[in-house]
Amino acid sequence: MEAEFRAFVAAQGDQLRRTAYLLCRDWHAADDLVSITLTKLFRHWRRVSAADNPAAYARGVLTNAWLDERRRPWRREDPFDVLPDGVHVDPSGVEDRQDLLALLQCLPAGRRAVVVLRYYCDLSVEQTAELLGISTGTVKSQAAKGLTTLRAAKEQA
């Protein structure tokens, strides 16, 4: 059981971390979210491993963990300074990536979750609805509104 979980983490860990970063835009918070997610998954690994798509199940747990964290009052603080991590970043495509991350930040949490799951994780409307516990119509409307907001923000930038 533990070996199977370790193999899952090795295969899906980076994807979960990138998804978490797109949701919260903070690598430290993303690492915390992934830790919370993996802890929950390990606790219920027998059920998770029996699921049709454990990776999709993990994304759902991650998204719900992020939404739960957003509801906590101490998470509403905004830092004043950004401290450099000292990590070298490949400069190719950084401007586009930074623009996209800044644009995602302008979306409300629920709408951002829909946009990230639909267009970054490439989930279907039905899969996104199931993960977030909302109707397919809500996914469609939130995705459309999110894209409209992102396009308008891009034009203003």
If you had to describe this structure to a student in words, what would you say it looks like?
Residues 12-75 form the RNA polymerase sigma-70 region domain. 75% of the residues lie in helices and 0% in strands. With 157 residues, it is an all-alpha fold. The protein folds into two domains: 1-73, Rna Polymerase Sigma Factor, Chain: A, CATH 1.10.1740; 94-157, Winged helix-like DNA-binding domain superfamily/Winged helix DNA-binding domain (Arc Repressor Mutant, subunit A, Orthogonal Bundle). The model is unreliable at 83-94 (pLDDT under 50).
Question: Based on helices, strands and strand pairing, what is the structural class?
Answer: mainly alpha
CATH C-level class of the largest domain is Mainly Alpha
For the terminal residues, how far apart are their CA atoms? 50 Å
The stretches of 5 or more residues where confidence is low (pLDDT under 50) are 83-94
Number of discrete domains: 2
Number of strands: 0
Order of helices and strands: HHHHHHHH
Count of helical stretches: 8
Strand percentage, roughly? under 5%
Percent of residues in helices comes to over 70%
Topology-level CATH name of the largest domain: Rna Polymerase Sigma Factor, Chain: A
Average pLDDT metric: 84
Rg over CA atoms, rounded to whole Å, is 16 Å
Q: Examine the secondary-structure arrangement and name the CATH architecture of the largest domain.
A: Orthogonal Bundle
Tell me the major beta sheet. Answer: none
Query: Based on CA inertia axes, which overall geometry fits?
Result: globular
